[in-house]
Design goal:
Elements: H1 6-20, E1 30-32, E2 37-40, E3 56-59, E4 71-76, E5 79-80, E6 84-86, E7 92-93, H2 95-107, E8 110-115, H3 118-126, E9 132-133, H4 141-144, E10 147-149, E11 154-156, E12 158-162, E13 180-182, H5 187-196, E14 203-205, H6 209-217, E15 223-227, H7 228-237, E16 244-248, E17 254-256, E18 259-261, H8 268-281, H9 284-293
Parallel strand pairs: 4-8, 4-9, 13-14, 13-15
Antiparallel strand pairs: 1-8, 2-3, 5-6, 6-7, 10-18, 11-17, 12-15, 12-16
Helix pairs in contact: 2-8, 2-9
């Protein structure tokens, strides 16, 4: 195993990342849609385990009728790079945010973002606490039974990340011999348990993809597993560690969709799908993909 001291990791690796992220337990809103913005900040101490005050960044569309536009509450994650996360100014940014803001602009509505733990989002959606869940959510037949999805807006594969001294993963079945850090109740967690059939004692539960990677860097797990865009993003952020990302392209990709409550009685889902089609047609979607993934 690579010898890396915990003091070095804390000062050189972990602390800078925490400065860019915030706890996902807070539920104060961030309001956003498209154009001119007004920002108000509250002081915060980034932490993985404590609830923090969030910084609200409010954006209103141009035009005299902006106050009359419908507003929808959107559940997101604070630490799901590059899909939604806080920047160094505690402003919510990310791929999901850009896509949904572009859809909102096209369809003349506004959105208010509320960070929440992944495990609570769908239950709270059913309870009508949120109108939309935007959290890189994979569309599955099982999930379709209890929630409705938009058309796919991004594709992902299962991937693992490791320090360079770990064995190369050419076949994901080889993961069965190793300890794996994973966020519970995710597609990655299901993949390990049902496809790989890994021994439960080899699974290390974590709260976010970042904390999974932290376990790898600290030699507390051999690999971390998550969606390929997330791990590729982190691999680029920490090039000095020469982290290796292995992607399983032997299976069908996961398709991400925005989520609304099952059989919702308005046209929100239609608005999302129409807006998505429109931003693909006018080049906005392609520009957002280029910004976040270079493609």
């Amino acid at each position: 195993m690579l010898a890396v001291s915990s003091r070095f990791l804390t000062l050189s690796i972990i602390a800078p990342l925490f400065l860019c992220t915030a706890c996902s337990n807070s539920n104060q809103p961030t309001n956003s849609a498209t154009n001119s913005s007004t920002n108000s900040a509250t002081s915060q101490t980034p932490s993985e385990t404590t609830t923090e005050a969030e910084t609200a960044n409010t954006t209103e569309p141009t035009g005299d009728n902006s106050a009359d536009l419908p507003n929808y509450i959107v559940a997101v994650e604070n630490e799901y790079k590059p899909f939604s996360f806080r920047d160094e100014n505690a402003q919510l940014i990310g791929y999901d945010v850009d896509i949904l803001d572009a859809i909102a602009k096209d369809q003349n509505f506004t959105v208010t973002y509320i960070p929440a733990p992944f495990s609570e989002k769908f239950q709270d959606l059913k309870a009508k606490k949120y109108d939309i869940v935007a959290a890189g959510t994979s569309i599955t037949d099982e999930r379709k039974k209890t929630m409705d999805f938009s058309n796919p807006y991004h594709d992902s594969y299962q991937a693992v990340i490791a320090l360079p001294n770990q064995p190369v993963i050419n076949n994901f079945e080889n993961l069965i011999e190793h300890t794996i850090a994973v966020e519970p109740n995710t597609i990655s967690d299901k993949f390990l348990k049902e496809t790989i059939k890994i021994n439960p004692s080899n699974i290390i539960p974590v709260t976010t993809p970042f904390t999974a990677i932290e376990k790898v860097i600290q030699n507390q797990a051999d690999y971390a597993i998550s969606d390929s865009p997330v791990l590729q993003y982190y691999g680029q952020q920490f090039q000095d560690l020469d982290l290796k990302v292995y992607i399983d392209k032997s299976s069908e990709p996961d398709h991400y969709g925005f989520v609304v409550a099952k059989n919702r009685d308005d046209d929100l889902l239609q608005k999302i799908n129409t807006g998505l089609n429109n931003i693909k047609a006018d080049g906005t979607y392609q520009a957002i993909n280029q910004k976040w993934f270079g493609q």
